[in-house]
């Protein structure tokens, strides 16, 4: 068990409470963000497996379908946009992505609205039934397609039309439209399995990013810096000032020795008897040394920074890191002041390891190492 303070003071318990509240608040925010993306990926995976169109869905639409064409998606309020000056768009692909930031309901510069109406995604084409007519984008004729990452705009280039055009959707419908258009295009080129495989890979990669639940801070891990407002940062600033102020005083202490020699060489105004020639030569010797002597170089009072090899380990005076070296079987008594020690830490009989939940344990090398902490993550070295 981690060593505890027997003084009966309560500031250590208050420090542990604040640390646990801060850690859990950070964890809850990260876990909520991770879960939202995970739910969206799972929803898209289920949609990729079950999404099918129906010929009956086209009943009532002013659109004539081919014999093998089915309606996959319909949205009643879409705007037709055209680009005044556009380059070559990237070729259509099957990339599936979940927007990291929400789209903004705006129309990008250089795009004008030409019409408005109903958007229909079928198994062979994207159709906009507008007030001025119908606009078709057949999948077999698409040469370029791009989705704006900041606005709900999709632009398309086709072989039978010179000007780039596309659709501007409501923000609430943009993500669903983009994914279903990708599925429709994948069905047209018989690559639905590639979309499902890509989603499976994204889900597996995202599962590896699930945040760890933080270790519980104990009163024994509280340091004296917790009593100072600002904690270790205030202590570090005070230590830096304690080193810099004496150095500044040393630099500005004694005056230039050359000035002292010049003052000593100034003739005394008090009249005196003229000494013999020999003493005059003796007075000329100090005058010849009035040029200032070079100052000896002083070393700075502050220590020069040296790069620490930590490889992700917290800063500690023992020199423990995650890089490599020798295993630690008898850790320093202050190890729990710098690392999050597991419960029953000092009862371990192995070498020092970090568990998958971030705690460190002395059970390295045993069959049950970090058994209550999701297993061993890596070894702590010295």
Termini separation (Å)? 22 Å
Q: Assess the beta-strand content as a share of residues.
A: 15-25%
Compute the average pLDDT: 80
Name of the CATH architecture of the domain at 67-207: Roll
Report the count of strand segments: 10
Residues in helix, %: 25-40%
Spatial order of strands in the largest sheet: 4-3-2-1-7-6-5
- Taking all Cα atoms into account, the compactness measure Rg is 38 Å
- Helix-strand category: alpha+beta
Largest sheet: 7 strands, antiparallel
How many DSSP helices? 7
Identify low-pLDDT runs: 1-8, 255-267, 269-307
CATH topology of the domain at 67-207: the name is: PH-domain like
Give the overall shape: elongated
- Output the CATH homologous superfamily of the domain at 67-207: Pleckstrin-homology domain (PH domain)/Phosphotyrosine-binding domain (PTB)
Q: Helix-strand pattern, N to C?
A: HEEEEEEEHHHHHHEEE
Q: In the CATH hierarchy, what is the class of the domain at 67-207? A: Mainly Beta
């Amino acid at each position: 068990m981690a060593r505890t303070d027997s003084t009966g003071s309560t500031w250590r318990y208050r420090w542990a409470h604040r640390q646990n509240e801060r850690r859990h608040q950070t964890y809850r925010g990260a876990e909520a963000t991770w879960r939202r993306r995970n739910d969206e990926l799972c929803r898209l995976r289920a949609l990729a497996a079950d999404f099918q169109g129906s010929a009956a869905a086209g009943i009532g639409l002013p659109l004539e379908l081919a014999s093998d064409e089915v309606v996959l998606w319909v949205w009643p309020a879409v705007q037709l946009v055209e680009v005044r000056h556009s380059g070559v768009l990237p070729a259509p692909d099957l990339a599936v992505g979940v927007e990291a930031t929400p789209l903004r309901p705006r129309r990008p510069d250089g795009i004008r609205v030409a019409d408005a109406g109903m958007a229909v995604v079928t198994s062979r084409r994207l159709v906009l039934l507008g007030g001025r007519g119908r606009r078709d984008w057949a999948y077999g004729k698409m040469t370029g397609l791009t989705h704006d990452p900041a606005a709900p705009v999709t632009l398309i280039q086709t072989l039978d039309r010179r000007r780039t055009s596309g659709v501007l959707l409501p923000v609430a419908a943009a993500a669903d439209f983009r994914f279903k258009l990708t599925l429709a295009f994948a069905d047209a080129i018989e690559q639905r399995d590639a979309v499902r495989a890509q989603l499976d890979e994204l889900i597996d990669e995202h599962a590896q990013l699930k945040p760890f639940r933080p270790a519980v801070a104990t009163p024994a891990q509280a340091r004296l810096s917790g009593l100072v407002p600002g904690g270790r940062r205030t202590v570090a600033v005070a230590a830096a000032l304690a080193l810099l102020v004496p150095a500044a005083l040393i630099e500005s202490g004694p005056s230039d020795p050359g000035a002292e020699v010049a003052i000593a060489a100034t003739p005394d105004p008090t009249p005196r008897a003229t000494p013999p020639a020999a003493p005059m030569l003796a007075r000329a010797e100090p005058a010849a040394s009035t040029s200032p002597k070079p100052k000896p170089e002083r070393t700075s009072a502050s220590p020069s920074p040296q790069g620490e090899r930590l490889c992700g380990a917290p800063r500690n005076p023992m020199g423990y890191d995650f890089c490599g070296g020798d295993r630690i079987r008898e850790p320093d008594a202050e190890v729990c002041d710098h690392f999050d020690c597991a419960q029953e830490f000092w009862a371990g009989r192995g070498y020092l390891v970090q568990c998958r939940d971030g705690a460190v344990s002395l059970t390295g090398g045993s069959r049950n190492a970090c058994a209550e902490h999701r297993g061993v993550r890596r070894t702590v070295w010295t």
